[in-house]
Amino acid sequence: MQTFRKLSANLHLYMAVPAILLFGVFFIYPLTRGIGISLTDSNGITAPHFIGIRNFIDFFHDDRARTDVRNTILFALGSAPLLNMFGLLYALLLDRKMAGKGIVRTIVYLPAVISPLIMGYIWYFILQPERGYISHVLQQVGLESWDVNWLGVSSSALVVLILVNVWQYVGMTMIIFLAGLQSIPAELYEAARIDGAGDRSSLWHITLPLLYPAIKINVVTNIIGSLSVFDIIVSLTDGGPGYATESLSIYILRMLYGNSTGYSTAVALIMFIIIIIPVFVFLKLTRKREYEL
Amino acid sequence: MKTVSTAFKYAIVAFIVLIALIPFYVLLYLALNAPSSHSFRGLFLVPEFHFANFAEAWKGSKIDKSIFNSLVITSGAVALIVLVSSSAGYSIARFRHKANALIFNTLLLCLTIPAIIITVPLYSLMKSIHGINTHWAMILLMAANAMPLSVFLYSSFIRTLPKEVEESAIIDGCTYFTAFWRITFHFVRPVTSAVVILTGLGIWNNYGQAVFFLQKQEMRTVPLAVSMFFQTYGAEWNKMAATALIGLLPAVAVFLVFQKYFIKGIMAGALKG
Lengths: 293, 273
What we know:
By secondary structure, chain A is mainly alpha-helical. Chain A has 14 helices and no strands. Helix content of chain A is 71%, strand content 0%. By secondary structure, chain B is mostly helical. Chain B has two domains: 50 residues, no CATH class; 218 residues, MetI-like fold. Chain B is 75% helix and 0% strand. Chain B: InterPro entries: MetI-like, MetI-like_sf.
């Protein structure tokens, strides 16, 4: 009874326990088991043997894996800067006094509500070769020669994926930037104006430096999101042509269907390293850049 | 000069709005097209108003069952996320002891790990706990995946609240535990909105894990039902779009209800952390 009373009085100290239990069982435990599996030749059928780091060595001789790493990184390198640039432009535009800006913000965010899988199907309908809507319009106006197979050429297919991704999630980056803009006190702009600063120099010397926290969140979430891209590629190009737009996460899941579980898990761990390096480098670089109010 | 630049600004805004609405219009166009029409008529996408697609999609893909599955999994997981991560965020923000610091740093580190990379070991875990093709295991899994972000948002926000919020309740005889549920929980509503929108949409739209752990037809969620129109029968655009639109409605409705606090919640939770 005594201990029960003591426990209930101190319950607030243990309130984080359910969260870590849940996370421990469904995330940390599988993650640590994954390290074990990655060191075996597990294939889901016969008993696995310990093979050391052979899977990790194989990775570096795997052309398809190398293509996928390149695709994934190119996708992230294209997506993250564009998302931030357009998100910031949108936020600056919609932060001003304007009739109906609330509705406009909501509409700009709405594409992010659609599942990326369905979004991929929608753009496939628009862009698919010959039977797509763009092809149809070009034929109607007599510009058949402009009818390029966007999804059939590796470079343009990747560009299409980047643009669709940017266009779907620009509302998300915009909202973070809007939140950041609202946290900048109006007096700062007032003072700058009295000191003779124009719009442009206010933007460079007040807005951008004070937006660092928002930029940081956006860059980190964009890096994580675009390096683990999956759904939209499945529905828009299915990794094609060939493996030209296949991302690492798709490769990992396809190998599961092909029963290469040991190797697939090793590639997954390598993917984790690929994601965590740019995030940490970025956080380290920006640490000193933050300005306290 | 001023009116010109204002007009220019509104023109840009109108353009932004239009391109954001493209997917919704395309879905509507496809959903209202007759099943037989494979070719376009004219230059613009004008639908035929063939409303029967919705009825057929409803029957053909058992969309009612899929929506039910999505609703059960999403609402169950979101409720669990809000309860578990808000109390964790409170304890971490207010009572700094070593275990709490360890829990917080662990979650923060894992914020960068995409869930997809643990699929193999997770599959054997789900198999051994008989969680494949069940609602409860999917709820627990989805909630677990959302823990890092939501605990982070809640704890950052609660740190910005003055301690006096709970103190008066403590004087009235509450414990810190009951004071949280009676008082603080109401103050964190902006973060709750942000968490409901961010994690709720992610779970509603989840495909990468649903495709592995919900393989039975009667366990299918909305994204799985939509993708079926491409795999089993070739591309059935009209039914795919009708199904997608029906599945989109609950997501848009929840977003519109909670969006009022969304910016506030993201701002307080994320930017101050």
